[in-house]
Amino acid sequence: MSAVARFDLKMDVEEKEVISRAAALVGTTMAAFVRMAAKEKAHEGFTACRDNPMTLYLPIGA
Fold this sequence. Notes:
This protein has one domain (about 15-55). About 60% of the residues lie in helices and about 0% in strands. It contains 2 helices and no strands. The chain has helices spanning about 15-25, 30-50. The longest helix is centred in the middle third of the chain and has 22 residues, at about 30-50. The N and C termini lie far apart (about 40 Å). The model has no long low-confidence stretch (mean pLDDT about 85).
């Protein structure tokens, strides 16, 4: 069995409702939906850094 790590996330009620509805639309849990979205964004960031190393120096959200 692989190790399990926990990650807690606080969000406002409106954000939770949006994520809950989106997760339901694709037939998954909120946790799985957020995990999938976070992994996709991480891979996008890795790709951007690989293609343009200067992106390492840009502030988040730039």
